[in-house]
Amino acid sequence: MADRYLSFTATGPGRFLTRRLGLPQPAALTRWSPERPALDGGLRHLTAGRSGLDLAPVLARTGIGPAGSGRAAAVVLDASGVRDVEGLAEVHAALHPVVRSVAASGRVVLLGAPLDPADHHQAAAQQALEGFTRSLGKEIGRGRTVNLVRLTDAPAAESTLRFLLSPKSAYVSGQVIEVGAGEEPATPVDRDRPLAGRTALVTGGARGIGEAVAETLARDGARVVVLDVPQAEQDARRVADRLGGTALLLDITAADAGSRIAEALPDGLDLLIHNAGITRDRRLVNMPAERWMPVLEVNLASVLRTTDALLKAGTLNRGGRIVATASIAGIAGNAGQTNYGASKAGIVGLVRSLAPRAVAEHGVTVNAVAPGFIETKMTAAVPLFIREAGRRMNSLAQGGLPADVAETTAWLAHPASGAVNGQVVRVCGQSLLGA
Ligand code: NAD
């Protein structure tokens, strides 16, 4: 499962050879660890157009100091006030001189405004920022990421900026994230254990991405319930014991899964993480219904059913979070995965439709993560050539780790992320597949 090419290009001869051959140059990404909780270096705050955002206090609270004249670990360009093509000249003028000096594994974050339906010049200029972000993400290299946040209110976007300006977002690039106005958390949030006092249920939590999600939510203070099929009992108990949580052995496709979860959680649930998923790949011409339906059942129908049951039963507490798992295969499509692609696209539809209602009626946000190529047992089973292509076909030229999806989930689950709703955030190193 190890990425030997990444290790090879990190050596002197490896770098020399692969450069001469014009092969991809993946940089070793800087990820979060207790020893390295923040980016290495300062922040440069730039503006294009006339911004109405009160950004400085929010950026100050992210804990990254100003960059001064040296290398910046992060650049934030507030382009929310850009309303026309002249404003785009200011975007160029602001970033052109500094982009070279952004440190390896550094961050470029653009801030934009929602598109104004009554002003097509503003809409054109703001949409232009999206093309700019995605293009810069593809060319910037050295493990650096570029993302765009559309916002109306700086404090509501604090948790999002904190995530993007940290090593936790190492594999999130080329994304456009919309942050609404949202509510502030009622009580102050403990910085180190923001999820303290919250209960999280992670489906498929016995291994792979689900295990990493359970681990990260527990790190952030949540009490975790690791749900997995009875056949995975040993792994589920091992993960739950390690994290001081409990295991719930249950096939999520069971008709009564929702009521059994509700029974197991008499004090309610705060974070519902729909992670369980399966693949049964085959081209449609060779795919019998026996391979089609189980994928739709596990990846989509059970997510719809348990979500409905838990919302209806009032098991999900106000301020709760639902994070479902889509996939870039559900956005771009993938040969041999009509069943999987359909199920994961279904998750995107579910999120978009349910998010506004779930917040209005239950005070619960609904978002999805869409992983790209993540190094797990699922992708280790992919034939070597396709696996190697999957790893390299993204702007960071490497696969992601389960921790990358877990950190993204933890940001969406954060008590201060109430203004992030209805988003599908790809954790794919800006995969070349799909938008
Ligand atoms: P994995 O196969 O390693 O783990 C999936 C877990 O889900 C297993 O523990 C399994 O027992 C459990 N599970 C399966 N069916 C279940 C059921 N009916 N009820 C309860 N639990 C069940 O997979 P992974 O790679 O960790 O993927 C996790 C999620 O991320 C899945 O939804 C997958 O589709 C999605 N995803 C993964 C990748 C990737 O590159 N690994 C990419 C895109 C999306």
TrEMBL record:
InterPro entries: KR_dom, NAD(P)-bd_dom_sf, Sc_DH/Rdtase_CS, SDR_fam
One of the Pfam families matching this protein, by short name: adh_short_C2
Residue ranges of domain Ketoreductase in the record: 198-372
Highest rank taxon of the organism: Bacteria
Family: Belongs to the short-chain dehydrogenases/reductases (SDR) family.
Protein name as annotated: 3-oxoacyl-ACP reductase
Annotated source species: Streptomyces coeruleofuscus
